[in-house]
Amino acid sequence: MTGPVIEVRDLSFRYPDGTQALRGVNFELYPGETVALFGANGSGKTTFVLHLNGLLRGEGVVRVCGLAVNGVNLSLIRRKVGLVFQDSDEQLFMPTVLEDVAFGPLNRGLSREQAVDIAREALAETGMSESAARAPYHLSAGEKRRAALAGVLAMRPEILILDEPTTFLDPPGRRDLLHLLQRLSQSKIVVTHDTSFAASIATRAVFFHKGRLEGDGPVEQVIERFGWGPYAGAESPAS
What we know:
Elements: E1 6-14, E2 20-29, E3 34-39, H1 45-50, E4 59-64, E5 67-68, H2 74-80, E6 81-84, H3 97-107, H4 112-125, H5 141-153, E7 159-163, H6 171-183, E8 187-191, H7 195-201, E9 204-209, E10 212-218, H8 219-226
Parallel strand pairs: 3-8, 3-9, 6-7, 7-8
Antiparallel strand pairs: 1-2, 1-4, 4-5, 9-10
Helix pairs in contact: 3-4, 3-5, 4-5, 5-6
């Protein structure tokens, strides 16, 4: 695609309890681009990304790879948008890592042999091949994050969304995840409070405040404009 892979126009959403979580949000994500989403807890970041694969449905227009996010296109859109949750335990539930990663391809109707082949490719891509036979609950936080990401990659998405990917990670785990994400070609949205991580992987950031998208620009400029932590010691996105 030459146009945006995600296009959002005038998106608003109110929860059943009356909380107005999004207010007229406009956003675009382009092929190969990585965008960081900043904002305080409760500012609307997670609510926003849950609209991008149809887990929530508000008022406005949301398009993924040119397709409207609606009931007709939902199955296809969920194959195009891979979501990695903040808590990896929410995505890891099978007896072994290999079975967990193969679960998605099996549900798409592939044979067990095909699903296992794809799962092994995804595990190799995330550096988790040696953990294929392990139980997910025996993994470290960093290993769980990479196993969850492998499960998403096995669905071969065009877009990756990561919600607070550095949560619970020690410095080596954070570094390994950063280098892995830098190698992946998909367009990415990274919801994070970690400004150094964001500056290392993204070239653009947006800032949410009380359900509105209040800022959009280069990562360091958005950090400085909103006082969102020091911009220091970050690695280059090309490193």
